[in-house]
Request: fold
Amino acid sequence: MRVITSITEVQVLIEKLRREGKIISLVPTMGYLHQGHVSLMKEGKRRGDVLVISIFVNPTQFGTGEDYDVYPRDLERDKKLAERAGVDIIFSPNALEIYPRAYQTYVQVEEVTKNLCGLSRPTHFRGVTTVVAKLFNIVKPHIAIFGEKDFQQLVTIRQMVRDLNYDIEIVGMPTHREEDGLAMSSRNAYLNPPERKAARSLYRSLLRASELFTSGEQQVEKIIGEVKKIIASEGIITVDYIKICDTENLQDLIVVDREAVLALAVKVGKARLIDNLVLKPLH
Amino acid sequence: MRVITSITEVQVLIEKLRREGKIISLVPTMGYLHQGHVSLMKEGKRRGDVLVISIFVNPTQFGTGEDYDVYPRDLERDKKLAERAGVDIIFSPNALEIYPRAYQTYVQVEEVTKNLCGLSRPTHFRGVTTVVAKLFNIVKPHIAIFGEKDFQQLVTIRQMVRDLNYDIEIVGMPTHREEDGLAMSSRNAYLNPPERKAARSLYRSLLRASELFTSGEQQVEKIIGEVKKIIASEGIITVDYIKICDTENLQDLIVVDREAVLALAVKVGKARLIDNLVLKPLH
Reply:
């Protein structure tokens, strides 16, 4: 496994590998790797000849007052985990390598970034698409793998890839969960024990919603009402949003009459947590 | 020479050519080719193994009320000219191939697009960088060639390439001029004979400015005053701007104490014309 910090070095190496006919897969990460990342890496390994992961806490996707400075970082631990997962190349640049002096270019996906997390984090997805476009140009992967936990991010990246004609297959992988159902996230490290316990209610509420939906409830207001009640009963969770949206364009639904995503974002202590579940109507 | 209208077809073909080790050069155009384009194509031919040109009148770089609908088009003539210039592939997609339903992604270079043409055409460069990013992802060239006549466009594209880490060499070629000095442009076709004659004053005024500068004048106000006088004497030319800017960041200068560009945009009849000249201080 090679650890590379220079953009040019990655580009030269990948160009050579592509010329040799190797299939390159990329898993972009912000590091502090967990089993969710491992499942993405395994899929990357399975689909490609050369597995690249990037580890970069991307400043442009954090708003002012968000957790950029305190976001957990542990490159040494990440290296061990990546090596075990079969990673061939770790690309871990510093912030100035990615955003040099006079940096001024941004990639913006307009419609699908407006709702959900886009409402409370208005520059977040612009930062995500910008850094992912850069990673695509640096690593030139054939395949890139993202988690479905960040559902809006996945929809946004698929839209960017389609719109900007990146010749890259985007693979979405199911959310990896702790035994009690909490979606894996590097930000779970912020939770103290009572917060960690309260956070279980998120997945529990999603499952309850799914049950309701499967038993015939299609009214968004009703379903969301149940989810809210379960989360509110914990007392220490502040809801940012709980919404049900069309999975294609992420616009709010009133009735779940097509494939939809039930998505939520909450604040528990210092952690902003998100989770989601796809609701598929039976036809 | 092949003429291709499908994005996927170009991508599959280029991928194969790159795997064979071929150097791909790209000249992006809006068609209605003239000798200025020919000089770009010749340079592309000289530097690469496979010369691709794109012919696409890009709607997103035209503002409302601008000349998108009447912009001159003549694909049959362009094909002959391209064939003679040694073009291997013409990529000439239609607008829906480039901007399908639900299109919503834009690439924006922020600082260098603010001044000059960015003032009167606020969404122009966003359209240019978006379509050029797409062309780069479709054609995957090693080299792309642009004219220095569109000076701000060239600076903007260089900035985008640097910021988004496109592994592409950008080559700028000197402005090609008619015998009387008028910079070649597809938009010259809009000029009637008196307008065409008046338009000569643009290059004449640039040469006079260069003379002044070479003889020691460094005050921007003085130099621009001369340029204005010469253009005003024609009576039928409306000035959009005449400015002298730092060639690197395109910010206005008061004194020409570094490499600078004297850039102008005017309206003559229905045509908006631009021209420029670089002023290099002797050190």
